[in-house]
TrEMBL record:
InterPro entries: Cyclin-like_sf (IPR036915), Cyclin/Ssn8 (IPR043198), Cyclin_N (IPR006671)
UniProt record, GO biological process: regulation of transcription by RNA polymerase II
Entries under SUPFAM superfamilies matching the protein: Cyclin-like
Domain Cyclin N-terminal: 45-104
GO molecular function: cyclin-dependent protein serine/threonine kinase regulator activity
Protein name as catalogued: Putative cyclin 9
Transmembrane segments: none
Signal peptide residue numbers: none
Highest taxon in the source lineage: Eukaryota
Amino acid sequence: MSSSPSSPVHSSPASTGFAAPYLPSFTRRYFRLSQSAFVISDYLVRKFRLTESVLLTSLCYWHEFVAAHGLRKANEIVLATTCVFLAAKVEHAHIRLARLVEAAFDLDVNTTAPAELEQWCRAVLDVELVLCDTIGFDFVRIFPLADTLRSVQTLAEAGQLQDAARQEIGTAVRRVFLFSFVTPLCIKVSMQRLCTSILYMIVTAARRELVTAFQSIWSAPEAEFPDEAELEGITAVLMDVFAYLHKKFGVPALDDVNEARYKRCRSQHGNDAGVASSVFSSASADFTPLMKMSEQ
């Protein structure tokens, strides 16, 4: 990737890496860069106390940019910072670009030359123009996770779901939804279909006895329940990302399967088969993304 702040974008053949019709064909490079974007974006969102919608919107922008331009089009820190900057504006957050750049690039306000800061700010603004054009100036992204979790709460209030089961399912669904943004599913599947697929995946694995109770949720037209082939594909992608990151679903049945897959992959490919589980830890905001990545 380019490391020059004066030339954040350079030409490269477009390479989406996606398999028809919508599921991504992951490579380790895609995973590593998407997890890096997640780490940088999450750090900036936490540091400046932005909303979760800013994080999710910025990651959608990142995947859309990469889908159109490939993985080498822009400096990875510039691109992640640009996505957060634009998403923050869309979500009506007030944040100064200079402060965002200082945090992303670990620039000391007392020792950094003004010209260097200006170069990186200009780089972000240049990439922002490309990003806006890439997404067709369609800025708003809607995330129906709250509605999905509310439907689970409704079942509990109706006496069809014990509170312990509600908490287990809700926590797992939220966790899987968040980590799904390491993958480009967020731009290949409708958000509603993704949420419904995740809910189905968790309930059928964790609480099969509750499938009948949830049937009314899945059968509703607005749920956009996928057909069998698509559901299997979405589930496979989610299982892949959790195995690759060596993360737990919080559902024993899924965790047992994923641990076996992770160990099998490690035995076949060594350490390169997975990513340290600290990658997505809620580390202290005192650490910059550059420091966190260098420690991995």
